[in-house]
Amino acid sequence: MTGTADQTAAPTPATPRGALNRRGPFRAGERVQLTDERGRMNTVTLAADGEFHSHRGVLSHGELIGRPEGTVVENSAGFRYQALRPLLKDFVLSMPRGAAVVYPKDAGQIVTMADIFPGARVVEAGVGSGALSISLLRAVGDQGHLHSFERRAEFADIARGNVETMFGGPHPAWRITIGDLAQELGQYEQPGSVDRVVLDMLAPWECLDAVATALAPGGVVMCYVATVTQLSRTAEAMRADGRFTEPDASETMVRGWHVEGLAVRPDHRMVAHTGFLLSARRLADGSERLAPKRRASKSEYSQEDLDAWTPVALGERDVSDKKLRRAGREALGLAERAARATGPAGAGVSDPGAQDPASAGPGGAAAAAPVPGEEQEDRP
């Protein structure tokens, strides 16, 4: 199935998209993170008549609406909560999802190492739940352009809802197309017109020809892959293509530290391997890749190797259509509330329901139903 959901917009507002719902007092429709005295966090969506229930009592949302960020409030049983707007890293870990998200540590590396700059023309493949799309949109800004390709309409609905929740409405720089990047990129982007390409997909080597055609000389392609077999095959495909520089591979690990008085030590838990990053740059047409000479090594792939790169073999969970539809309804419902929270300033950019029916999930635009549950405990 192929379709296009263009995020058409009115003239770009003077205030950058997303700034309005990051400032000022709390408003109904906003997502707020409540942290108790033991450091446990819950994220709620404020409503005029809403309540946050726990085994330790009830907290009325009215205690927060109109109050400044950083307020400490007590619930009916006298337990205190610290209320703050979720940071991007918090939002990503608590938002509705249908696919695994790109963790903040990797998203930060992608934005930096791929040199995503304000005003850049960026293409993304594999939208998933929209975590990386949010980081890319923040980097390109309102004057940039992010064209995201996603094969599954259900994932596109979830991503759209999460993006609109974060920015308080449709982002003027975002366009999402339902389809295969390898087949459709050339229909939408002119040769040599794209500055950066980010591939978060199972088989990025299948898209390298389309990517090389669309990238401008000097442009960057960044691939996010989960396993060493994917990493190896993608790197060899880049070398074989001949239009890219020598690929550079890395992974990022983050280890927190416990700091309390003289008790200073590494945390017992850390976010270790989540994925590999592989990047290269587009050479000018007719130029030859310069690379250090190496001794010949095995570069052919057997059928057994190819079978190892199936989604099941890589440990991907089979997400049911019912779960995807539920996550899509939740994400789009949160987006509607976020748009209302920003008021007239956030409502004039675009109609959240004005999207291509071909790109909508089974529920279409009507899928933006009430959110199944307002309260959600943050999860890694």
Automatic annotation (TrEMBL):
An example Gene Ontology CC term for this record: tRNA (m1A) methyltransferase complex
Biological process (GO), any one: tRNA methylation
PROSITE patterns: SAM_TRM61 (PS51620)
Domain tRNA (adenine(58)-N(1))-methyltransferase catalytic subunit TRM61 C-terminal: from-to ranges: 93-259
InterPro entries, A to Z: SAM-dependent_MTases_sf (IPR029063), TRM61_C (IPR049470), tRNA_MeTrfase_Gcd14 (IPR014816)
Top-rank taxon, per record: Bacteria
Extent of Low complexity compositional bias: 334-373
Disordered: region residues: 1-28, 334-380
Keyword field contains Methyltransferase: yes
Keyword S-adenosyl-L-methionine: yes
UniProt-listed Pfam families: GCD14, TrmI-like_N
GO molecular function: tRNA (adenine(58)-N1)-methyltransferase activity
Keywords assigned by UniProt, alphabetized: Methyltransferase, S-adenosyl-L-methionine, Transferase, tRNA processing
Protein name according to UniProt: SAM-dependent methyltransferase
